């Protein structure tokens, strides 16, 4: 099956996890950027190569946990601290998405992590939003920016307050809210007053490092209409029913989940709950999380799940359709037009493998009404 030809979305894509490896190598060597992982002498001796950085950045299935996975951002973040570097990374990420038939992408990032050279969070967001708009037009990809607050920073800190101030501004592309970071830090309840006040769509990381109760909290306390990962929702039938009844979309990222050692998920992924959720009536989407760090694409995730879970063409049609349904785009007419175009194209592509795929889709969708 040709997964590349399908029209797809990537709703859970960390911008600093999707920078090209070649771009990291180029920026580090050209701009002489030093981190705790290497010295200036290493740069001068030409040691900073793709192979060298790969040992630090590329995720593995034998990693201990999410924290080990996150060390890659020491490197990628260091390469995204200036206006020109931010523009380059946004442009390349959207360009690469277009090559893989991604028709809508949502780039999430924390502006607070891109201010080490003197840029303010507002300046960072203005740069990213403008670059995203220009790349969106150039490569014909719909783009939304998801601005993240981080659990590392207290709700009343200057950093968090500066991030929340960003949601009151207008940008050339749509924006949304996410809270990310280690789940052992500040929780959704700590930021509830601020999230209640913002007017943008909300997705929250939950059910990855923490279990089903975190997913429940994301929906009930955090007001999330989508949940980032949500993979551990199977731990509670109550939570699965909540997701189904409230029509919450899960942003699932299988490859990343094996690398961050998610509890209850085998490394071989034969027990990955995506199909279980789909059959239960929960709307699921497939995403990369960190395309470069995890070395995956939406197409490769679709192929992986098809192999591991024996997905049928109708399952793939449903998953891709949910991606366009779940997109954070306030222009309802534009959003529906894109979904319809993608649906028609994907029916055409998948009909080669199952001539009755559209009929089966209509029957299966009754479960989600």
Automatic annotation (TrEMBL):
The keyword Hydrolase is annotated on this UniProt entry: yes
Keywords: Hydrolase, Metal-binding, Zinc
Pfam families xrefs: A_deaminase
Record InterPro entries: A_deaminase_dom, Ado/ade_deaminase, Metal_Hydrolase
Co-factor requirement: Zn(2+)
PANTHER family, per database record: ADENOSINE DEAMINASE
Similarity-based family: Belongs to the metallo-dependent hydrolases superfamily. Adenosine and AMP deaminases family.
Designated name of the protein: adenosine deaminase
Organism the protein comes from: Hexamita inflata
